[in-house]
Amino acid sequence: MNKAPFIAVEGPIGAGKTTLASMLSQELGFPMINEIVEDNPYLDKFYDNIEEWSFQLEMFFLCHRYKQLEDTDRDYFKKGQPVLSDYHIYKNVIFAERTLHGQQLEKYKQIYHLLTDDLPKPNIIIYIKASLPTLLHRIEKRGRPFERKIEKKYLEQLITDYDTAIRELQQRDPDLTVLTIDGDHEDFVMSKTDFERIARQVKELIK
Asked: What range(s) does the Deoxynucleoside kinase domain occupy (predicted)?
C-alpha cells in the first residue's frame, strides 16, 4: 500500500462498528476517529418524527464529521500517519437518501460534496454485514433509548442501502480495498479466535 492506511469500519446501525474499530485500534496501535452519535440534539426528535427533523439531523452529523476529518487530515494524514475510524463519510449520503427528499436532498448533496470532495477518503473499508435479527439483538443489548424507536422496516432498508453503497464505493475507487465480515457468525467481541482472524486479515492488507 502506497499511502498510510486509512481504515474505516462500516455497517448498519447495531453492526458493532465502534466496538470492532476500538479493538483494532488497540491491536494495531492506530489513533481512532470515533463517531459521536448521542451528542446529536436532534436524535430523539428524529425518531419521533423523521420527516420533520431529518434535515437538521443529517446536517448536524455532516458538519461534525467534516470537522473531525479536517482535524484528522491536519494532525495525521498530512504527516503520513495511519488512522482508523468507525465510519466512512459516505454514510451521510446513505442516510440522507433514506430520510430526505426533493429539494432538501439536492441541497444536502450539494453541501456534502462542497465539504467532503477534497477530504481524505479511506483506502480500506471493513464492512460488517449483519441480518436484521443480529442488528435488533445488538441494539437491544446496548440499550440506547432513542434506538428502541427505530422501525424494523427502516433497518431492513439500511441493510440493502449499505450493500449498494459499498459496491458503488468500490466501483468509483479501484484502489479501495473492502474486507467483508459476517456479523451473524463472526463474534469478534465474545470469540478471541474470531477477532484474531479479523486482525490477521487487516494486518495482511496493510503490509
From this structure: 7-207
- Residue 109 C-alpha cell reads as 448533496
Cα separation, 32 vs 90, in Å, equals: 18
Q: What is the pTM of this model?
A: 0.90
Which homologous superfamily is 6-205 in? P-loop containing nucleotide triphosphate hydrolases (3.40.50.300)
Nearest Cα to 33, choosing from 9, 2, 63?
9
DSSP state letter for 10: E
Q: Is 141 labelled a binding residue? A: yes
- Asked if residue 4 belongs to a known ligand binding site, the reply is no
Greater model confidence, 47 or 66: 66
Q: Which listed residue (73, 86, 163, 184) is catalytic?
A: 86
For residue 168, what are the CA distances in angstroms to 161, 162, 163, 171, 189?
11, 10, 9, 5, 29
Q: Is 167 annotated as a binding residue?
A: no
**pLDDT recorded at residue 140:** 87
Q: Are the CB atoms for 86 and 21 separated by under 8 Å?
A: yes
Phi first, then psi: give them for residue 30, nearest 5 degrees: -95, 140
Active site residue 173: no
Q: Is 193 annotated as a binding residue?
A: no
Sequence ranges of the domains in the chain: 6-205
